[in-house]
Every structure is written in structure tokens, then in C-alpha cells.
């Protein structure tokens, strides 16, 4: 049995490498930071896609450019690009919603969405080209 890639781990390590490149304060290292940040964005997109692997048409498996893949995923789940917060609370009365101030927030999943990819992925790509 083959284990699925750990894309979240890949994203974290790419982010760590990008931080190290930026910390060098050497302008020629910025392009390497941009490449690592793009890798992190790709890994996060691929991680999201893994949750929908049975819903993605087989011909789309080869469309692993993040923006194009996100477009495919949005066709499967229009809410895939939305961040969400999970909170719990105990009802005082069955069926009556718990007031927001009595809810315990467990965390927020901040999603890298299509707009983020369009804005930042391509902007980082421009850093990879030769300066003129």
C-alpha cells in the first residue's frame, strides 16, 4: 500500500526554507524564497485536492497547476475556497441555538483560495525571471 504524500508537511518545510532565504537579506536569495513560497502554495492546493480525489475526473489528474486545479475543485465543491471556524456550545434548551458569547471556538481553517492563488502565486512567479 502506498502512502499519500504529506502535502501539509511539504508546505510547512517550504515555508521554513522561504523564511531562511528571506532572513539572509541577500537580494539574490529572494528568488529562492519566491520559489519556496510557490511550492508551499502548490502543496496546500494539492492537500485540499486529496480530500476530493474520488470526485476529480481522471483526466484532470494531470492539471496540477494550482489555479487550474482549484477551478476543478470549485466545480466539485463551490465552498472549497472559503475559510471556516468550528465552535461548540451546550444548549440550555434543546433545539435553541447557543448564544455566540457562550460558544467555545476550537479553531479556524484559513483556506488558500482561488483569489489568493491568482494574486500571489503569479506575483511570486514574476520574481523567478531574470532581472533586466
Brief digest:
With 132 residues, the protein is mostly helical. 47% of the residues lie in helices and 8% in strands.
How would you sum up this structure, described in words?
This protein has helices at 7-23, 30-50, 66-76, 114-126; strands spanning 84-88, 104-109. It is mainly alpha-helical. It is globular, with a radius of gyration of 19 Å. The protein has a two-stranded antiparallel sheet. The chain contains four helices and two strands. α1 (7-23) packs antiparallel against α2, α2 runs parallel beside α3 (66-76) and α2 (30-50) runs antiparallel to α4.
Oligomer: single chain
CA(first)-CA(last) distance = 49 Å
Rounded mean pLDDT score: 88
What kind of sheet is the major sheet? Answer: 2 strands, antiparallel
3D shape: globular
The low-pLDDT segments are none
Helix content: 40-55%
Strand order of the largest sheet: 1-2
The number of helices is 4
Task: Give the topology, please.
Layout: H1 7-23, H2 30-50, H3 66-76, E1 84-88, E2 104-109, H4 114-126
Antiparallel strand pairs: 1-2
Helix pairs in contact: 1-2, 2-3, 2-4
Entry keywords:
two-stranded antiparallel ribbon; 132 residues; mainly alpha; 4 helices
